[in-house]
Amino acid sequence: MDYDNLTIVGHRYAKFGCISKDELRYDLTYLPHYYVNPIPSWKSFDSKSGYAFPSRNSARVEIPSSSFTYSLIMTPNLSHFQPQSTTSNGSVSLDPSQKGVLMQLLRQNQHLMQLLVRRQLMQQPMSWTMEMHYPRSSTSDHFWIFDSGCFNHMSPYPAGFITKQPSPHPTVRTADLTPKHVLFSGNYSTDVIQLPEVLHVPGLAIGLVSLTQLQEMGLLISFDFFGCAIQDPKTKQILGKGRRVGRTLEVIYLRLPLSSSHTNLAAPISTTSSFDLWHARLGHLSSARIKLLANSGVLGNVTSNEVSCLSCKLGKHHALPFELNDYTSVSAFDLIHSDVWGPAPHPSMGGHRYFVIFIDDHTRFTWIYLMKHRSELPQLYINFARMIQTQFSKPIKILRADNAMEYKESSLIAFLRSQGTISQYSCPGTSPQNGRAERKHRHILDTVRTLLVSAKCPERFWGEAAFTAVYTINRHPTPVLQHKSPYEVLHGVLPAYELLKVWGCACFVQLQPHEYTKLEPRGRLCLFLGYGIEHKGYRCWDPISKRLRISRHVTF
To answer: Residue ranges of the Integrase catalytic domain (predicted)?
Structure first.
């Protein structure tokens, strides 16, 4: 069917058609409120999909609107689109084929309730208007927008208030200077919105989120063409989002901590920190271990609460535990446990698919090395043993590993004999004999999965997550070591917990002098991926140059 003219008046969202990428896109899924889109000519219309293809010369005119209605004004080619009859009130009766075309156009919209077709007094040829009335959904019943001119959060919906107290403002004035009565104030919480200190103003039509009140809390508010985002300045967590609808910002979701007074979330890090924040900084450590560190005072002021972490439940879910072995060596490096893990389903950023760990039985300190091939193991162990001898002046007495062939390679056997190191291998098919290494694998991989889930990073970052997992695990206190950490037992000093950061958080890295001109930015927004292995600095992923940056000049 051909159409000479088609105008779409939109106030809410709808699925309508789209065109090829080299033409102007008219997809109502993304068109904002309050816009009329006159489309002078249509190239074609697909009645099966409801897709229409307009010309490039379409204009867009802004108009006021306050209803939840779409009006689709079509000027059809009368030779193909003739009304069968006209009633006394101007309604038009269409034949079944014409009605079928119109219903195909609207079939994509599952929640459309009624279709009214009536005659309009417009210039010839004859025009028709289809009004599509939408029922309000559960989210529409509590419609909120971000408002830069509003001094306080306001809600006309009484059901969401979980606390009530007298309001300091008995009346408020809206944009048209009309006074509105305030019944009370309190904390407001629903599935979508959670706000402190909200005024209940029944006379409002919609809920208002005050941007200035959010700024007083120290929150970061960023805007782009599509909408806005509300972010915690310390953890970089997204607390809320809004979408651009015409010249308004509709709240998609916003969940802020509830308090009786404005809490400045941009306060220095030396103030009280939450369990959740230290839980993330310490690689998703358990609540009991965080309490132990907090009670010792090394974490500063920490709020006392329990951690309920969805990422831990997803990343650390496992089946039956391994059997425990109560034997512990007398001194460091008397016994080293080792095992190889892999292949990984995806290579790391460096192309590695395996890793090997070495665990000191006495201190529980763990070393991890990534490998592209299992054949790299003999040389890695030789380098590791020489490092232990140089740094700690102690030889490795026993190497305990599984029955893998890499541990029986001739060059490794010769080196063990030259060092006087005894090798112990698990029996075939009895991996629990190397249980300490197996359990450490599970601990590391649980943490790796949790870090990836929490930071929403792709699986190719698993290598960096593994390095960070081992780095933080070595700093976790354990009851096996009288509630000391492996790092403290091995080195005799407490680890520097103040240097720990949340894995996967945003950070700013200073660029090298040759990377910018005199007028270009000196820093770059990167992704924190861990701590330096051979450098004293942080490992950060640069999404622009797509490479790993290692620098000490990093701000969080």
So the answer is: 317-494
